[in-house]
Design a protein that fits this description.
Layout (H helix, E strand, L loop, with lengths): L1 H10 L1 H8 L5 H16 L6 H21 L6 H11 L5 H17 L1 H4 L4 H6 L10 H17 L5 H17 L9 H23 L8 H16 L2 H9 L15 H4 L8 E5 L8 E3 L2 E7 L15 H15 L6 H6 L2 E6 L5 H6 L4 E3 L8 E5 L12 E2 L3 E3 L5 E7 L7 E3 L2 E5 L4 E3 L4 H23 L6
Parallel strand pairs: 1-4
Antiparallel strand pairs: 1-3, 2-3, 4-6, 5-6, 7-8, 8-12, 9-11, 10-11
Length: 460
């Protein structure tokens, strides 16, 4: 049962859909949450070395869960609390799970310092799991039959698993109530764990003394559980573990080839199925990425700041009153290219512009427009974007196309930052509190790993 449950969690329908949606952090987040939960429910070791290792293992699991899916740090203690209320776990298990959750929150310290609870719950576009009716029916049948016909020792587990599965499924489909990307991501984690628990409860079959009706019921439950693996079979057969095709890597290679000495500018992507998270204007998704190689750090969008708000307002104005020469305004944002990934209201906006010209690129499946105005992310001559900052010859001050912030420099030009260029480099200044919290997070991980290593070979 445990082995089949592991497979159900790893390649079950919830995980398969998350991978297809590009939510790959769900997989390591799920692994950490499941590890911490299972460790908390295991019998408490009798030796001190074993106990130290147990705490270290709980902390590593919680840290892994929180690092990839922040709200998943709460999953171990929530699940064990649910089991405790059903008298399927002890208070010691709850305390153990709390250690894993505390470690997960400690690792998130640098992030929690500058975001609010509202941002955590509502920021980002949620992923909606559109469950086929036959898959929902199979999951419901598995859970119901596991409770009604399963072995008595598994009835509570099947009920709890079904409850967790339903709760996770609700979160993956609750975008209409205002939740953001993080709650929907943890919804996939909960759905995967809940489904795995239910599958485990039917995998062992019926008790020896079960009635004919009970045996028939558990066989039907096993058959329904097998249906849950259909998405996994499709995922494996595709050869890509469910991850979508690379639609933007090669398609945006032109940004490197056509960049100036100042380096590639930014790319404004407008349309459906954009990489990573996106914002929207008049219900049309859009986002801005760096030209050249797209970095993983740009996959998740922070809360809108001055530059984001200014760009959104300008794009909205273009829909109301199109302009013949929008290139100079886009250049202020460091935008060198506009890429339309699907038909939208912006097709007409950029169809008749004089300084944003369409490029006749044969191998690119999108409509690509290039800004013919001079575009630099830093307005001083010779200054270039280096990936996480700017560099160039010494000058008194540099306007950079970044939202104004004292950590870029004390000055501002409207929404943009004015930074001191006297030292030839400009970087985002470190917040001492964030640095201290990051050091605490690293210390937690190192201590947890040391505890696990020290307990190797200890008697349980």
């Amino acid at each position: 049962g445990a082995a089949v449950a592991g497979l159900a969690a790893l390649i079950g329908p919830a995980t398969a859909v998350a991978m297809q949606e590009g939510l790959w952090p769900v997989l390591p987040g799920l692994a950490g949450a499941a590890w911490a939960t299972g460790t908390a429910l295991a019998p408490w070791p009798r030796t001190w070395r074993g106990r130290i290792g147990r705490v270290g293992s709980l902390m590593l699991g919680g840290a892994a869960a929180g690092s990839f899916v922040p709200l998943a740090a709460l999953v171990p203690v929530a699940l064990v609390l649910l089991a405790w209320m059903s008298r399927a776990a002890s208070w010691r298990a709850v305390a153990s799970a709390a250690a894993g959750t505390a470690a997960g929150l400690a690792v998130l310290g640098p992030w929690l310092w500058w975001v609010s609870a509202e941002t955590i719950v509502t920021a980002g576009d949620p992923s909606t799991w559109r469950v086929p009716w036959w898959l929902a029916a199979a999951a419901a049948a598995t859970a119901v039959l596991a409770v009604l016909a399963g072995p008595e020792r598994h009835v509570v587990g099947a009920g709890l698993g079904g409850l967790v599965l339903a709760g996770g499924g609700f979160l993956t489909r609750a975008g209409e109530i205002g939740i953001g990307s993080e709650p929907s991501a943890v919804g996939y984690v909960l759905a995967a764990i809940g489904g795995a628990i239910v599958v485990a409860c039917v995998a062992d079959g019926a008790d020896e003394g079960a009635s004919v009706l009970g045996r028939a019921g558990i066989r039907l439950a096993q058959l329904a559980a097998a249906v849950l693996f259909v998405p996994a079979i499709v995922m494996v057969a595709s050869g890509s573990l469910g991850l979508g095709d690379d639609r933007f890597g090669e398609a945006l290679a032109f940004t490197e080839a056509r960049s100036s000495e100042a380096g590639p500018g930014r790319v404004l992507l407008i349309g459906e199925d954009l990489p990573g998270q996106a914002r929207s204007v008049d219900s049309v998704p859009y986002r801005v990425i760096s030209g050249g190689e797209v970095r993983l750090a740009e996959a998740w969008l922070p809360a809108p700041r001055a530059g984001d708000q200014a760009l959104a307002a300008y794009l909205e104005s273009l829909l109301v009153e199109p302009q013949l020469r929008p290139g100079s305004r886009l250049a202020e944002f460091g935008i060198q290219w506009v890429v339309l990934t699907s038909p939208s209201a912006f097709d007409d906006v950029f169809a008749a512009t004089l300084d944003v010209k369409r490029l006749p690129l044969v191998d690119v499946p999108f409509a690509v427009f290039e800004n013919v105005e001079q575009v630099t992310r830093a307005d001083a001559g010779g200054w270039t974007f280096t990936g996480y900052g700017y560099a160039g010859p010494p000058v008194p001050a540099v306007r950079i196309a970044e939202s104004r912030s004292e950590r870029w420099g004390a000055g501002s030009d409207g929404w943009a930052a004015i930074a001191d260029g006297g030292e030839s480099t400009i970087s985002y200044r470190v917040d001492p509190t964030v640095r201290a919290l990051a050091q605490v997070a690293l210390s937690v991980i190192v201590l947890a790993a040391a505890a696990v290593v020290a307990s190797v070979g200890a008697r349980r």
